[in-house]
Specification:
heterodimer, A: Rossmann fold, 13 helices, 34 strands, B: alpha/beta, Rossmann fold, two-stranded antiparallel sheet, 10 helices
Chain lengths: ~725, ~325
């Protein structure tokens, strides 16, 4: 139960209850007196009654009053409203509470233990406590500071996503409860989400713009009549852009930014963590760790690399001091204030070369170097650790599916460092897909044929390089008539496949005219003068590079770009598996964990970094979804059922897959707080002379009138007052 | 008019009639505007021709008349027989009717006490002048429930045929034994009185005449039996002027002591004005009624001294002389 205006109820009760009781006692306390005879008194009363005006209405006046009271209640039920100009309106506030990773920094208090979020919560609670309590009727009861109209506040907490924690309410207790319930996350911050959400929840208001000759009635939602309070450390990358839009018309209530945290907070962070295998020599693994420090003097940290929980390498690293950008130094020197200037954190990159063909869970952590005498401790712990899933080293297996045994293609493939290269006829390959043998191949090259297509027109799941055929719609494209003689005229030189090739000299004898439907999941990589000449199709299950023309009927196999393209395409498609495989297992905070486990798996359990387990319900195709993930660390999904190549099995027959969630965000790790938010534009007022007309509720007055009439009626009844 | 919680009750003659007053009223006698025939020989001229010393008339002798009454002096002079007639002197019946309903206990001084004292004084006057004194207390104290309705004779108690100074104490005791209670049924009481009383004479009716059943029928009945009715209306000062009472303030729930009827009032100037007007109208109506039927009415407030009432008001009205 929520009490919106308990104060008013108490005041009303304080007036009405004693009044009622007094009336009641008036009735009871009519003094009993025994007299000789009531003969003359009765006659006198009757005489007075007889002489009173409206004597005939005397009995009816009670009825009349009851009717008036009833009418008032009935009108109140109709909820009348009045358009009222310059009506007192309580301030509406939106509190945007930043709960992103940088808010975990413990530099808000004296003791280096209070986090910025705790401080922001305390400030927000203070703001909420100062809210005006409203009265029911908008009357000035002389209790609050003014108005008698309640302030309403909405609470939105945000990181990379935003959620409304509490809708507009004047219930302070609920708001304070909601503020205290906000949990920190390890997610980067994005103010735009929060502002969009706030705007979406604003009540629609009617404005009258009477600056021009005719008064224009406008309806809409703006932040103009709402006081926006941002509780953050100012580390909001999109603040300038978002706030510029938001301040349009916000002259009544400017956006207020409450900064928490210290501008000189020191943080050493891992901002980059990746691993790469050598293409030719896959067991050679290079692990890259990027470090940053916001300290204004060089810092030495101990960097530890762990593989599957075992320390592999330990190294002392000195991170350079943060520096001030050159252009800003002069202006701040004049202003005398350097706090508002962003220092660029010092950064360093470390590479660990390893010889390791197995995969594993890699972890990097930094701790203050032993014997270091740094004055300020590291303020943010979240970014001192990072995790990475490295897939085991392996070469690619390729299936060449061709009805005619394409010599050029086979020769080009034989020169590549592949694990296996097997030749199939289309019928064999279809059979291999059916019995599951095809799953061993990372990439299938289809020469003049298509992989099996199901009834809905989508290809069998897999990675394909298709020559001389086009996947059908809806994901693919429609094939038109054949065009004789064509040439590449443009291609995407930034695409990994086409980065190193020159297709200028390739002549195409015959190419079909391709038309892409709206539903197509296909994008064009290269254009010929007869239309698209190279396509990339990517759906959830299928990734394919499509060369629509027959390579033999072109000069391409004779060109130097032919082996280069094939090598790049296989590498692109094959490594896409590796990237997908491990890429889908490296997640940033705030993202949703989506993966596929073998279909038919049961009792799927995800275990978080702090050991809490929750059950997941896989979809029919084995898709599992968890999140958004809020905290960093390693998550693992285990299930009962089959395992695939990269999964680790357990004796109990359960498959397991591990996922790494790391912050790795330079912006969040750069924690020195900002005192101001930069605005890209000056405030432009759109409503400076217009007035707001708000609808005023009338039913409380009617109810009040009804109560008054009923009290009066009661008084008349008891006092036998003759009007 | 407000009921007195502990009304003063007289217990003996001295409290009803002090010695000083006895001395003063001893010389008085009850008068009657009519001449009634009495029962016994008395000090009062009767309608009958009798054997007193006062000459009344002569009449011619007819055979059979008592020769002792022949006026022999006239026979000597005129040689004709005439009888000499004398006035008969008989006693007068004084009947005092006392309202004994509960309303008597109201007011300060109490109306019933006042009426007791007036009755005692009048009774004393009657006794010392050898009048036949009777008293009747009327009220509904004897009411009995018959078939769900209170049936009453209207008479509480009565004492009759007292004569001579010796009976003074008896009368006082009877008066002191009365206790006002209940309501009144004046009409019924008057009927019974008029039926039961053989001797006619002076009747004094003491009451406040605030009778919800009406005083008209009763008075009419009494007049019809030939009584010389003297009505004394006793009102307490508060009944005449309610403002004089401290208790009569604010919102009141008035309860009639006789029938328990309620009236809720708020004491205010318009109401009091109305009340006084009503009281005046009521008294006027009573006076008019009495005047038409040759009833002597005297309205008196209970704060009027008894001797003033007896020696001045009653004398002027011709009840005593």
């Amino acid at each position: 139960m929520t009490w919106l205006t308990p104060q008013l109820a108490a005041i009303a009760a304080a007036i009405a209850v004693p009044a009622l009781v007094i009336l009641y006692f008036l009735k009871l306390r009519r003094q009993n007196v025994e007299i000789s005879t009531t003969l003359l008194w009765k006659k006198s009363i009757q005489d007075l009654q007889a002489n009173a005006p409206f004597q005939k209405l005397r009995r009816n006046i009670l009825l009349l009053l009851q009717l008036i009271a009833l009418a008032a209640i009935l009108f109140a039920l109709a909820q009348p409203q009045r358009q009222d100009q310059d009506q007192a309106v309580g301030v509406r506030r939106v509190i945007l509470l930043d709960r992103s990773a940088s808010m975990n920094a413990t530099d808000a208090g004296e003791d280096a233990k209070t986090s910025r979020l705790d401080k922001a919560k305390a400030e927000a609670v203070e703001l909420v406590s100062a809210m005006r309590q409203g009265s029911f009727f908008g009357l000035d009861l002389g209790i609050g500071d003014s108005g008698g109209v309640a302030d309403e506040t909405m609470l939105i907490s945000f990181d990379s996503s935003a959620e409304v924690v509490e809708q507009f309410t004047s219930d302070k207790a609920a708001l304070i409860r909601a503020i205290n319930a906000v949990q920190p996350s390890d997610t980067p911050s994005e103010l735009s989400q929060a502002m969009t959400l706030a705007r979406a929840h604003l009540p629609s208001q009617t404005y009258y713009d009477d600056r021009s000759a005719e008064t224009i009635k406008l309806e809409g939602r703006t932040l103009g009549n709402v006081a926006v309070h941002i509780f953050s450390d100012g580390r909001l990358p999109d603040a300038a852009e978002v706030l510029t839009q938001a301040v349009e018309g916000s002259d009544r209530h400017p956006i207020e930014f409450v900064s928490v945290g210290s501008a000189e907070a020191v943080n050493t962070a891992i901002t980059g963590f990746s691993a790469e295998r050598d293409y030719d020599n896959p067991q050679e693994l290079a692990v890259f760790v990027g470090l940053e420090s916001t300290a204004r003097e060089p810092r030495t940290v101990e960097l530890t690399l762990l593989i599957d929980g075992v320390a592999e390498r330990v190294r002392d690293v000195t991170i350079p001091a943060a520096s001030q950008p050159q252009g800003v130094t002069a202006s701040t020197a004049e202003g005398g204030a350097t706090a508002n200037t962003d220092w660029v954190p010092g950064s360093i990159g470390i590479v660990f070369p390893l010889e390791r063909s197995e995969g594993g869970v890699f972890a990097a952590s930094i701790t203050p170097a032993s014997g270091s005498t740094d004055a300020a401790p590291d303020a943010l712990a979240t970014d001192d650790r990072a995790w990475l899933i490295v897939p085991p080293a392996r070469r690619l297996s390729v299936a060449l599916v061709s009805a005619r045994g394409n010599l050029y293609l086979r020769e080009a493939l034989l020169g590549l460092p592949l694990a296996t290269l097997d030749l199939f006829t289309p019928a064999d390959y279809a059979a291999a897909i059916t019995d599951g043998r095809a799953a061993r191949y990372d990439v299938a090259i289809m020469d003049g044929t298509l992989p099996p297509v199901d009834a809905e027109g989508s290809l069998a799941p897999g990675r394909y390089l298709i020559y001389g055929a086009v996947p059908p719609p809806p994901a693919g494209a429609t094939v038109g008539e054949m065009v004789q003689g064509a040439q590449f005229i443009d291609w995407r030189r930034d695409h990994p496949v086409l980065r190193a090739v020159n297709l200028d000299s390739v002549l195409i004898a015959e190419i079909p005219r391709i038309q892409l439907p709206d539903t197509s999941a296909t994008q064009i990589l290269a254009e010929s003068d007869a239309g698209p000449a190279l396509l990339e199709l990517s759906t959830a299950d299928v990734r394919a590079l499509v060369v629509p023309f027959d390579s033999i009927r072109s000069t391409w196999p004779l060109d130097i770009s032919w082996p280069v393209f094939n090598a790049a395409a296989i590498r692109y498609l094959g490594l896409a598996i590796a990237a997908d495989d491990s890429g889908s297992r490296v997640i940033r905070p705030g993202q949703v964990l989506v993966d596929r486990i073998p279909p038919g798996s049961t009792s799927v359990v995800i275990t978080g970094p702090d050991g809490d387990k929750s059950n997941l319900q896989p979809a029919a195709d084995g898709r599992v979804v968890f999140g958004p993930v809020r905290t960093t660390g390693t998550y693992s999904i285990t299930w009962s059922g089959a395992t695939t190549g990269t999964d680790t099995g357990s004796p109990a027959g359960r498959g397991a897959r591990t996922y790494a969630v790391s912050l790795l965000n330079s912006g969040e790790s750069n924690i020195p707080a900002r005192d101001t938010l930069k605005l890209a534009a000056t405030t432009v007022s759109a409503t400076d002379t217009s007035t707001t007309r708000a609808a005023q509720r009338l039913w409380p007055y009617l109810l009040l009138a009804a109560i008054a009439v009923m009290l009066f009626e009661w008084w008349v009844y008891n006092r036998k007052v003759y009007l | 008019m407000i009921r007195t919680e502990t009304p003063k009750r007289p217990t003996k003659l001295d409290e009803l009639l002090d010695a000083k007053l006895i001395a003063r009223v001893g010389q008085l006698d009850v008068t009657s505007r009519k001449i009634f025939s009495g029962k016994l020989r008395g000090e009062r001229r009767s309608k009958k021709r009798g054997e007193s010393v006062e000459f009344a008339d002569h009449r011619p002798y007819v055979s059979g008349d008592d020769l002792r009454h022949v006026d022999w002096n006239i026979f000597g002079r005129l040689d004709r027989l005439f009888l000499k007639l004398f006035l008969e002197e008989e006693d007068l019946c004084l009947h005092i009717v006392l309202d004994c309903s509960a309303s008597g206990d109201c007011g300060d001084p109490g109306k019933f006490l006042y009426m007791q004292r007036v009755a005692m004084a009048l009774g004393y006057i009657g006794l010392v002048n050898y009048n036949r004194v009777a008293m009747t207390a009327i009220g509904t104290q004897d009411a009995e429930m018959v078939d769900g309705k209170a049936v009453s004779t209207g008479i509480v108690s009565s004492i009759r045929d007292l004569r001579g100074r010796r009976r003074t104490n008896e009368l006082a005791q009877w008066l002191c034994s009365l206790e006002p209670a209940g309501g009144s049924n004046f009409g019924e009481a008057a009927k019974r009185i008029s039926v039961s009383r053989r001797g006619k004479g002076v009747m004094v009716v003491l009451s406040d005449y605030f009778l919800k059943e009406g005083y008209q029928d009763g008075l009419r009945l009494l007049m019809g039996r030939g009584y010389d009715v003297f009505a004394l209306q006793c009102l307490s000062p508060e009944e005449v002027d309610p403002e004089s009472s401290d208790k009569f303030r604010g919102d009141l729930r008035l309860r009639d002591v006789e029938d328990g009827d309620f009236a809720e009032i708020t004491v205010a100037a318009p109401l009091l004005k109305k009340y006084k007007a009503n009281l005046a109208a009521y008294c006027d109506e009573l006076r008019t009624f009495c005047a038409r039927r040759d009833i002597n009415l005297l309205t008196v407030q209970t704060d009027t001294p008894i001797d003033t009432l007896l020696l001045d008001y009653f004398r002027r009205r011709g009840l005593v002389r």
